[in-house]
């Protein structure tokens, strides 16, 4: 992700990439007015990252974490969940990132915790959706019998729910957690 950011943003003079983990950014104390992340907080050590946020934020500085989550009221999402349970050994939920992110944001922000939810349906080319599904941390290992079966069944599912189309749209929400960590 860092490499993609460098490639996309290197032409902006205020973009300064830092090769450091989120828990130890190497940024000076009180040097940033906002800390933001998208679909990443569930990968960080929450205690160390919270401490780092408080260290680098200016007084009154804000913390923002944004994560996308699938809508389980959707029949296609329910059907994909069933496929994941069948073929993905590390699977827990198509909302696993949100389920891990919210308590971490609450711990970092304490009484300053705020949350907002926005509808954000996602449209994919079918092949891109397949690649997105295979890039998930819970996806079966590439080349394994489970992966081959998962790909076959996911293609069948897309054709069942989205026939005669190269695209599919899945209901999704974006959830924003924000506040001033104390």
Q: Count the strands?
A: 6
Radius of gyration: 19 Å
Q: What about the largest sheet?
A: 4 strands, mixed
The shape is elongated
What is the strand arrangement across the widest sheet? 1-2-6-3
Helix and strand sequence: HEHEHHEEHHEE
User: What is the overall pLDDT average?
Assistant: 94
Helix/sheet category: alpha+beta
How far apart, in Å, are the first and last alpha carbons?
Answer: 29 Å
| Low-pLDDT residue intervals, each spanning 5 or more residues | none
Strand content: 15-25%
Q: Give the fraction of residues assigned to helices.
A: 25-40%
DSSP helix count? 6
Describe this protein with a few key phrases.
alpha+beta, 182 residues, two-stranded antiparallel ribbon, 4-stranded mixed sheet
